[in-house]
Specification:
The protein is mainly alpha-helical. Helix content is 73%, strand content 0%.
Length: 302
């Protein structure tokens, strides 16, 4: 009987890799269970995702329906748990639906800004020379502008709305990814395995995609988790100033904008959307800090 040795070795390698992945996931989950801050952040994120997905099924009222007979109803009155706004719309329903907008903006912006910034960072860090000089000067110029101010200017040019606020946040945020990824690539480029690849004639494309990019997943994941909270707060700030998501869409930022004129007479109009923003940012940051502490080898002393 003949045995296909390469096939056997390949199958054994697949089983070994699968067991390593399962062990890594189990170790990561055990670490999360031991960290109360990481667990709190994780639960907040899961809760936010659930209400974003199933928001329309759990809202007690139509978030866009205006009932002028019940305008500025205080919390816990007439069946409105968090009260109503100046048009009689249910605050709880609008906060629940506003979570979907925040999640869409946070995740989509990270995907766009992270992808573009990672590509620029890899090119700049690997090729260095005049390419690195030009790209990093562009990054330095953009970083010299305050982030929120830059987003406001871009939104003033291209217009407001959900799509445009995502575009403006991505344009303003890619430089963070580019700077961090560049520094990681500069360090990786000096590693012995990269030097060996260059010496043996391995193509640049293979080095970038097979050897450098896989080693960037950890810093990309950590940075992305932390930047989501930044983008959610930035969107709320821009919408509060009137340049982001426009009424009647129930975004948390424009809910604050609509309620600012009633701050002394109807405190719940801005208090509950503000609490929603605070809890969301806190949860994402707690989970991001746990990811950084867990996945960053330098922080673990490895």
């Amino acid at each position: 009987m003949t045995v296909n040795v390469p096939k056997v070795l390949h199958d054994q390698n697949k089983v070994h890799l699968k067991s390593i992945k399962q062990s890594a996931i189990s170790t990561l989950f055990s670490s999360l269970m031991r960290s109360w801050t990481g667990m709190i952040g994780f639960l907040i994120i899961i809760f936010l995702l659930l209400i974003s997905i199933f928001g329309q099924l759990i809202t007690p009222y139509d978030p866009l329906y205006a009932d002028f007979s019940k305008k500025l109803t205080p919390p816990m009155t007439d069946g409105h748990f968090l009260g109503t706004d100046q048009l009689g719309r249910d605050i709880l329903s609008r906060i629940i639906m506003g979570a979907r907008i925040s999640v869409i903006i946070g995740i989509t912006t990270v995907l766009i800004a992270g992808t573009f910034g990672t590509i620029i960072g890899i090119i700049s860090g690997y090729f260095r020379g005049w390419i690195d000089a030009i790209l990093m000067r562009i990054v330095d110029v953009q970083l010299s502008f305050p982030f929120i101010l830059l987003v406001l200017v871009i939104n003033a040019i291209i217009g407001s709305g959900l799509r445009n606020i995502i575009i403006s946040l991505a344009i303003g945020g890619w430089v963070i990814f580019a700077r961090v990824i560049r520094s990681e690539v500069l360090a990786l480029r000096e590693k012995e395995f990269i030097t060996a690849c260059i010496a043996t004639g391995v193509s640049r494309v293979e080095i970038l995609f097979k050897h450098i990019l896989p080693n960037l997943f950890t810093p990309i994941i950590i940075l992305s988790s932390l930047q989501i909270a930044t983008y959610i707060i930035a969107e709320a700030s821009v919408s509060f100033l009137g340049f982001g998501v426009q009424p009647p869409e129930p975004a948390w930022g424009n809910m604050l904008n609509e309620g600012k004129d009633y701050i002394f007479s109807s405190w719940w109009l801005i208090t509950f959307p503000g609490i929603a923003i605070m809890i969301t940012a806190l949860g994402v940051n707690l989970f991001g800090d746990w990811l950084r502490d867990t996945l960053d080898p330098e922080l673990k002393g490895e």
